[in-house]
Amino acid sequence: MLTASSAGAETRDELLRACAGLDREGPEAQVKACSAVIAGGQEDNDRLAAAFFNRGNAHVALRQLGHAIADYGQVIRLKPASPIAFTNRGSVFHRIGQYERAIQDFDQAVTLSPEDALALTDRCLDLAIVGALEEALADCEHALALRPNSAATFGSRALVNLKAGRAQAALTDYDRALAGTAPVAGWLFGRGVAKTRLGDKAGGSTDIAAAQRLEPDIAKQYARYGVRL
Predict the structure, then answer these.
(1) Spatial distance between the Cα atoms of 211 and 34, rounded to a whole number of angstroms
(2) Least crowded by CB within 10 Å, which of 48, 87, 134, 198?
(3) 152 in the same domain as 222
(4) Which pLDDT belongs to residue 8?
(5) Closest C-alpha among 50, 51, 125, 60 to residue 89
(6) What pLDDT, in 10s, does the model give residues 118-135?
(7) At 1, which CATH number?
(8) Residues 129 and 221 in one domain
(9) What is the span of the domain harbouring residue 132?
(10) Are residue 37 and residue 113 in the same domain, yes or no?
C-alpha cells in the first residue's frame, strides 16, 4: 500500500490534495490517496476524519457501498457531532434498501443540525417509504420552508402525496421536481403513476416508459416503496 512516507511516493501535501479530490483524477485515485493518508499516521483528528469522509464519498462514486458505510462510521467515531457524516451514511443505507437504518442516521443528522434541509428531505423520503406519511410530510414542509425551490424536496413530497392518495398534489410536485432538471427515473415513474390514477393513461405510459429507459427496474423499486401501477 502506498503511504505518505513511502520512497518515491507523493508528498504528504500532494496526498492530502488528491484525497480531497482536488487533482480531479477520479474516485479510484482518491481512494488510494486517502488510504495512504490514513495509513501514514501523521494526521490530527480532523484531517483523519476528512480522509475517511473523502474516501467514503469516493467509495459511493465507485458503488462500493459497504466500504462507504464503514468509512462514514469512522468519521462518526472521530467526530460524533458531524451531521453530514450521518446524512451521507443514511443515504447509503437508503440505496441498499435499509430504510429504517437510514432514518436512524437522518434522525441523528437532524438532531445535530435541525435546519439541515438535505437531511430533512432524505428523512422525508424514507419515512414515506416506510409509511409514516404525516411525519414525512412535516419533514418535507420544513425543508421547503428552508429551501423553497428544492427539486429533491418536491420529489420526496410527491411520493408522500402519491402514497397518501393525493394524486393531483403528487403530480404538481413531480412537475416541480422535474422542471429545469435532468430527468430522474423515480420522479418520471411517480408522475406516470399519478397521471394514470388521474385518468391520463397516455401521459402516464409516456412517463413510465421514459423512466424505464433510464432505469429498467424502476417499477420494482417503487413496488418496494409501496407504489404499484
Answers:
(1) 36
(2) 134
(3) yes
(4) 36
(5) 60
(6) 999 999 999 999 999 999
(7) 1.25.40
(8) yes
(9) 98-229
(10) no
